[in-house]
Design a protein that fits this description.
two-stranded antiparallel sheet, five-stranded parallel sheet
């Protein structure tokens, strides 16, 4: 325990807080010492009334004395449903103080993304990506920290902060090494659950806890009592103060204030009165004291508790139905009674606001309002907020508290609030509004529409919940025509995200069978083939490829349904190893003037990202890397400019990396794939996008010759069975088989490649470039079972010639050469070089050139191969060529 303070100059709640204050002082000094100093997060944790708020006030005093800019915010128990409430309190005042043009210039590309969440810009028309909004808010802090250095951010009652703020806080804490700012938060243990708890704990884990805030000792309580009441307070009276309050600093200060008000003498004979005085400061005693101030003051306090934040005399007067003069008088009474106070908002807008002296008082007042009256007051507050022009989203927190009453205006307001929440990147807030709208309930003709909107709001955050909502909506009247098709398509997407791919296929197939509209039926059939096309399971529907080919043969690309079928047919033909020329011709027909058609773009939601990914992948493996890379780059640019920084951006980076890998730019590929994995880590492990990034990174590291690093990545990110239900390019079983062989686990590697063979055969995927198990297995079996190895190599060459690309044929010839010796090996290696020289895949060309140089013992070929391998970043291939060159020169 720190030394007991004995001076009356010390603020009451800072007794026995020397260690905590010293830590804060050091943190402020470090911040002020250097603009490039890393940021710090300090956390004060303790029970209610233990002095957290006082410690933050001392932080402000210390920081401002050293010339720091200090911004503060506070969570509220009744405001947790308001998205971005706390982060807006922190950052909005500084941004509002700028001219609009200055704020836009200052935030740059992040203005349209973070601005709506901060309430300084109008939201766009489409749903905002929550992850990118979070990233935008972190970027805003980084820029403001440079502008306002040294900057201190303080959050009181962080356990009551809204979920969106806590997500931002966790992201900021993770990146404080690059942001010179001091963040100090105060929170209670517990009092938070679900995703909010996860985000808050993540932030806490990145910070440094202050010493635990414990109750005052008897000696400290005695010192505080004498500092307040005078040195004549006797020991027995001081001991009773400690016994009554348990050493809680807030309760101690309030009790001593009551002693002063009552003119009680601090002597043992009066100590028995302390318990009744203490009861009047909290709970039912506080309510009784409030009632003694009169009916008007009580109504004023109730209205303030209902509002929770933004408490002004005018707003409370309107809610409590008081005239302005009476409301002002009540405010003064409540301030005199230490129930309300003026917040410390020096230098910030809203300095005329009121707040409760302590959250414990706010909670007690709110709970004292009779239930029916409290509900009615929330309804009135919702109307006042709406009439004030603050919008449906601002009113929605009150509407959530109103009893359902078959009020269609409430349904309409909640639906509008949900749209506003989605537009600023708060899907959970939208979900709460729509779930409440269903309880009203909506009229039968709009009930299904509300369920559909709810399903769209929860699609990415809770796919299993979405499935139930959309199935219920589809079973009700009200969804017809395009809306019904959209709902079925969204349901199939939710099933896909919930790893129920076969059910997704059955859902669109059944709806297509009962849909009379040919256009709608074609779209549903395309969705069916799309989900079947990305399914990595062991079975495929009978004659699927044949039916898809029949449908695509009639398509001219006149609308998006036909273009989708052409893309699906091209992707199917590519994975099955059919003619690459036909694959490219099908894909070209799906474009409009060489570009993605409107409605099939990367950010269009009608079809999703799967179709353009299939299109670009088909080009990539058909040796049309120019078109594939243009599409992958367009995806990255589209998601970044649209503000999508979650799973979509992770996939875009992964496929840009795939393009670099196919081209042979291995260093660039590794950089893109690591960026993809960083984003995928935030989205969540186990998803198909996570597999795409990990599989491609392992493949790239193996190509570079960085085997140990590839093994580390595989171990770190769980690159092992079971594999996802959706297709991953390149084939993860084959890549893992290569990894096992490269690390000396030959038997396991062979088993994995044989599993890849079985899976590919079951799905008819015979493209030797996409699933190159045969060439890898042939090399692995060359010494142990040369006859089988030769058969595998022959079959791989046959499949490669059927597909017809230079890369496929060249790779098959490389494998055949590796199984031969003498002049036959030289001739096959030379043929491999000829094909791969014409291929866009430079790493494979480099490998073929080095292998030809080894077979022919040609220093010139080894030098050419080594130079090409070096330009690709294939360090292992360079080392192999250098060793072979030394042997040739020595021989």
């Amino acid at each position: 325990m720190t030394e007991v303070r004995r001076t009356g100059a010390v603020p009451a709640s800072l007794w026995e807080r020397d260690e905590e204050v010293a830590t804060i002082t050091r943190a402020v000094d470090i911040l002020c010492a250097d603009r490039s100093s890393p940021g710090t997060l300090l956390e004060a944790r303790g029970e209610a009334g233990v002095g957290k708020t006082a410690l933050l006030a001392e932080t402000r005093r210390i920081a401002e004395a050293r010339g720091c800019t200090v911004w503060s915010a506070r969570g509220g128990e009744t405001l947790r449903s308001v998205p971005f409430n706390v982060v807006r309190q922190l950052l909005q005042p500084a941004l509002v103080s700028m001219l609009p043009e200055e704020a836009r210039d200052y935030l740059g590309d992040w203005y349209d993304i973070a601005g709506p969440a901060l309430g300084i810009a109008d939201p766009g028309e489409r749903q905002a990506d929550p992850q990118n909004v979070c990233d935008g808010l972190v970027a805003a802090v980084r820029r403001l920290a440079r502008r306002e250095w040294p900057l201190v951010l303080m959050i009181d009652d962080a356990h009551w902060a809204d979920q969106e703020t806590l997500r931002w806080l966790a992201a900021l804490a993770e990146r404080l090494d690059e942001t010179s700012v001091l963040v100090v938060i105060a929170r209670r243990p517990g009092d938070v659950s679900g995703d909010s708890a996860r985000h808050l704990e993540a932030a806490s884990a990145m910070g440094r806890p202050l010493a635990p805030l414990n109750a005052l000792t008897p000696d400290a309580t005695a010192g505080l009592t004498r500092a307040t009441l005078g040195p004549h307070a006797d020991a027995a009276f001081c001991r009773e103060v400690w016994a009554v309050t348990g050493g809680n600093p807030y309760e101690t200060v309030e009790l001593l204030a009551k002693v002063q008000d009552s003119e009680l003498q601090p002597v043992e004979a009066e100590a028995a009165e302390l318990r009744s005085l203490n009861r009047s400061a909290r709970g039912s005693g506080l309510v009784a004291r409030l009632e003694q101030l009169g009916v008007d003051a009580t109504r004023f306090a109730w209205a303030a508790a209902i509002l929770g934040g933004g408490i002004t005399v005018d707003m409370v007067a309107a809610l409590a139905t008081l005239d302005r003069a009476d409301a002002a008088r009540c405010a003064e009474l409540l301030r005199g009674a230490r129930i309300l106070s003026v917040p410390d908002t020096a230098g910030q807008p809203g300095a005329d606001e009121l707040e409760f002296v302590h959250p414990l008082i706010a909670t007690a007042v709110y709970n004292s309002i009779p239930g029916a009256l409290r509900t009615a007051m929330h309804g009135i507050a919702a109307q006042l907020v709406t009439d004030s022009g603050l919008g449906a989203a601002a009113a929605s927190r009150h509407l959530l508290k109103v009893y359902p009453d078959d009020d269609q205006e409430v349904v309409a307001q909640l639906r509008e609030a949900a749209r506003e929440h989605l537009a600023v990147g708060a899907p959970d807030a939208a979900r709460r509004c729509l779930e409440r709208a269903l309880q009203e309930p909506p009229l039968p003709e709009s009930h299904a529409l509300v369920l559909f909107e709810l399903g769209c709001a929860t699609l990415l955050t809770a796919p299993s919940t979405t499935i139930g909502h959309l199935r219920t909506a589809l079973a009700m009247p009200g969804l017809d025509g395009e809306q019904r098709v959209d709902a079925v398509f969204r349901l199939s997407q939710a099933l896909l995200h919930n790893d129920q791919l076969e059910e997704a296929v059955r859902t669109v197939e059944a709806e297509a069978a009962r849909t009379p509209d040919p256009s709608a039926r074609l779209r549903l059939q395309a969705a069916q083939y799309m989900w079947e096309g990305i399914h990595a399971g062991e079975t495929s529907s009978p004659r699927r490829s044949a039916r898809l080919a029949e449908l695509a043969a009639t398509c001219t690309g006149r609308d998006n349904a036909e273009r989708a079928l052409l893309i699906l047919r091209g992707f199917d033909a590519m994975t099955h190893g059919e003619s690459a020329e036909e694959v490219v011709e099908l894909c070209d027909r799906a474009l409009v003037n060489g570009r993605l058609a409107p409605g099939l773009g990367w950010t269009d939601t009608e079809w999703g990202l799967e179709l353009p990914m299939m299109l670009a992948s088909s080009y990539a493996y058909a040796d049309r890397l120019d078109r594939a890379e243009a599409l992958f780059t367009e995806a990255l640019r589209s998601y970044e400019s649209a503000g999508w920084s979650g799973g979509h951006l992770a996939l875009a980076h992964a496929y840009v990396g795939l393009g670099h890998r196919r081209r042979g730019r291995l260093r660039d590929a590794e950089q893109s794939l690591r960026a993809s994995l960083r984003i995928a880590e935030r989205v969540g492990r186990g998803l198909p996008l996570y597999w795409s990034a990990t599989c491609n990174l392992v493949d790239t590291l193996l190509a570079r010759g960085h085997v140990e690093e590839a093994r580390t990545v595989a171990d770190q990110y769980g690159f092992a069975p079971p594999y996802p239900s959706t297709i991953v390019l390149p084939d993860p079983r084959t890549v893992r088989g290569r990894l096992l062989l490269a690390t000396g686990r030959t038997k396991e590697g062979v088993n994995e490649l044989e599993a890849a063979e079985k899976a590919a055969a079951a799905r008819g995927r015979h493209n030797p470039v996409v699933v190159p198990w045969a060439t890898e297995l042939a090399r692995a079996l060359a010494a142990e079972d040369p006859a089988r190895a030769a058969r595998l190599a022959t079959d791989a060459r046959r499949q490669a010639e059927r597909f017809g690309t230079d890369t496929a044929i060249g790779e098959a010839l490389r494998c055949a050469a590796a199984l031969e010796t003498g002049q036959r090996a030289v001739r096959l290696a030379a043929q491999a070089v000829t094909y791969l020289e014409a291929s866009p895949c430079q790493y494979e060309h480099a490998a073929a050139r080095v292998e030809y140089g080894i077979a022919a013992r040609s220093a010139a070929e080894l030098n050419r191969g080594m130079a090409l391998a070096d330009s690709c970043g294939a360090d292992g291939l360079v080392a192999r060529a250098r060793e072979a060159l030394a042997v040739v020169r020595a021989g």
